[in-house]
Structure formats: structure tokens, C-alpha cells
């Protein structure tokens, strides 16, 4: 773990800028302001068409699964908590705690994305709602799909930051080696994450089709053992990559980078609360 520099660091004020706000943080606020207007347009469009639906639009309550969406909403809210803990940890120089919080945030974000993939798949193949066959499908998939893309970008950003936190502070040769190791680390991380989501989604479908039983589990393992073996190998490799190898070039001075990520992640979560209320919950108000 890196050692924090002597003396307290002011993470909320930068005397070198004219505004007193770190330039990176100011840039993120400007981006989020523009993104707020973008999502405002998408949400308004959906609400307008829901208030004045054209003939033939399917009833949303017969399509939506409020239970699944409520679960994914709770998971996303918990990811905001973990992101806040990650920011707090790096501001105190606790690198190990920051990594654990970021990994948990990535996990929760991936669960949310998995729920969204499952929901979209169910809507298209079982409820026959697509982006082209009704105005409900057009506004719903555009809005929630755009938000899901933001979550996916956030998960990728968090993964890059997690890998970045292992950059050594040694000689240039070690840093050159780190570039190769970090690339392999990123590929292994992404492959393990995708394989895990694939297995969870397919097991859920198998359990729904045949019921949850020992036979279902054995049949699933028999048909998916290459993917299971790959996921286990990936987790073991990630554990090896996480082993401490000396001092790293990531400490309290990088707190503003983690805080920028936190601002983005919290914004995405707040947008989802608005979407969940406007798109899902309003359909259940008589």
C-alpha cells in the first residue's frame, strides 16, 4: 500500500485554480450538467407519449416486472454507497479499502446490467415489445438503454481505475512491465466479468424453465462446464494480480480522480431513480 504524503491534503479546494475548484472536478460538473439536459429530453419524451398514447400501444403494466426492477434499483443504490466509501477511503490513504469498495461497486453495477439484459430479453422474446413495433418500445428502450450504456461506461471506468491502482512506483523498467501486466489484468477482469454474467443469466433461465433442483444444477454444470472453468480460472488469476508487490503510484493525491468517478456514478444512480419513478412506478398509480 502506498504511503500518504506528510501533511493534510485539502480534497475540496485547489488554490492553483481561479475558482478554487480542481479543474478535473469542474469539467465533470459541466459534463453532468449537459447530460442532465440530455436525460431530461428523453424522460420528457417518454412521459408525453405515455400521457397521450396513440392507439394500439400495449399496456405497460402487463409488460413490466416491478419486482425485478425494484431489486435492480436497490442494487444500484447500494453501489452508490460503496462508491462513496471508495472516495472516503482514498482520501484517507486507505488503498486496500478503496480497492474493495470499487470491486463491490463493479459487482453491483454488473448485477444491474445483468438484470437489464434479462429484462430486455424478456420484453423482446416473451412480451414481443421491440424498439420499432410501438411508441412505448421506442421511448422505453431508448431511455433505459441510454442509461444502461452510462452504467456500462461507469463499470469500465471503475475497472480501469482499479487496474491503475496497481501501477508500481519503481523504476521505468518496472513501469514498462506494468503496462503489459495491466493490459492482461484488464482483459482477464473483463473476460471473468462477462463469463460470470453469462453463467448467472443462463442459470436463471434454466431454473425458470425446469425449476430449481439438483438435477437442474447438474445439467447446467454439464452443459456449461467450459464457461464455469473459465470463470474460476479468471477469479484465481485476478487474485494473483491483486497480490501486493511493493509501493504503488496511487495515493491520496489521486483522490480527485476517484471523486470524479464518484460524481459520475452518483449522477447515473440519481437519473435511474427518476427513470424508475417516471417510467415504472407511475404506471402502477391508479
Description:
By secondary structure, this protein is mainly α. The protein folds into two domains: 21-47 and 60-165 and 250-286, Up-down Bundle (Four Helix Bundle (Hemerythrin (Met), subunit A)), CATH 1.20.120.80; 170-249. It is 73% helix and 0% strand. It has helices at 23-51, 66-91, 95-125, 135-164, 172-210, 214-241, 255-280. Helix 4 runs antiparallel to helix 5 (172-210). The termini are far apart. Residues 1-6 have low confidence and may be disordered.
CATH topology of the largest domain: Four Helix Bundle (Hemerythrin (Met), subunit A)
Largest pleated sheet: none
Number of domains: 2
Got a strand count?
Answer: 0
Number of helices: 7
Helix fraction bin = over 70%
Oligomer: single chain
* N-to-C order of helices and strands: HHHHHHH
What's the SSE blueprint?
Elements: H1 23-51, H2 66-91, H3 95-125, H4 135-164, H5 172-210, H6 214-241, H7 255-280
Helix pairs in contact: 1-4, 1-7, 2-3, 2-7, 3-4, 3-5, 4-5, 4-7, 5-6
Quick take:
With 286 residues, this protein is mainly alpha-helical. Helix content is 73%, strand content 0%.
Q: Can you tag this structure with a few keywords?
A:
disordered N terminus; 7 helices; mainly alpha; 2 domains; 286 residues; Four Helix Bundle (Hemerythrin (Met), subunit A)
Amino acid at each position: 500500500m502506498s504511503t500518504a504524503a506528510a501533511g493534510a491534503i485539502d480534497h475540496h479546494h485547489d488554490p492553483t485554480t481561479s475558482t478554487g475548484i480542481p479543474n478535473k472536478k469542474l469539467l465533470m460538473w459541466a459534463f453532468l450538467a449537459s447530460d442532465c439536459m440530455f436525460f431530461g429530453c428523453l424522460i420528457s419524451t417518454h412521459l408525453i407519449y405515455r400521457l397521450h398514447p396513440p392507439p394500439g400501444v400495449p399496456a405497460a403494466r402487463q409488460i413490466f416486472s416491478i419486482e425485478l426492477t425494484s431489486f435492480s434499483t436497490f442494487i444500484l443504490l447500494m453501489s452508490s454507497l460503496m462508491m462513496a466509501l471508495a472516495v472516503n477511503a482514498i482520501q484517507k490513504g486507505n488503498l486496500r479499502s478503496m480497492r474493495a469498495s470499487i470491486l463491490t461497486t463493479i459487482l453491483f453495477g454488473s448485477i444491474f446490467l445483468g438484470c437489464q439484459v434479462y429484462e430486455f430479453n424478456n420484453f423482446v422474446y416473451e412480451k414481443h415489445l421491440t424498439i420499432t413495433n410501438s411508441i412505448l418500445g421506442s421511448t422505453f428502450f431508448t431511455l433505459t438503454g441510454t442509461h444502461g450504456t452510462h452504467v456500462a461506461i461507469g463499470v469500465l471506468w471503475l475497472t480501469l481505475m482499479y487496474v491503475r491502482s496497481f501501477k508500481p512506483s519503481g523504476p521505468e523498467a518496472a513501469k514498462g512491465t506494468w503496462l503489459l501486466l495491466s493490459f492482461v489484468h484488464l482483459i482477464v477482469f473483463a473476460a471473468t466479468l462477462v463469463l460470470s454474467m453469462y453463467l448467472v443469466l443462463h442459470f436463471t433461465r434454466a431454473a425458470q424453465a425446469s425449476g430449481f433442483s439438483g438435477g437442474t444444477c447438474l445439467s447446467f454444470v454439464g452443459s456449461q462446464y467450459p464457461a464455469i472453468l473459465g470463470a474460476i480460472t479468471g477469479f484465481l488469476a485476478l487474485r494473483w494480480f491483486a497480490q501486493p508487490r511493493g509501493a504503488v503510484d496511487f495515493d491520496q493525491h489521486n483522490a480527485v480522480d476517484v471523486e470524479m468517478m464518484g460524481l459520475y456514478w452518483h449522477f447515473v444512480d440519481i437519473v435511474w431513480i427518476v427513470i424508475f419513478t417516471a417510467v415504472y412506478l407511475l404506471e402502477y398509480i391508479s
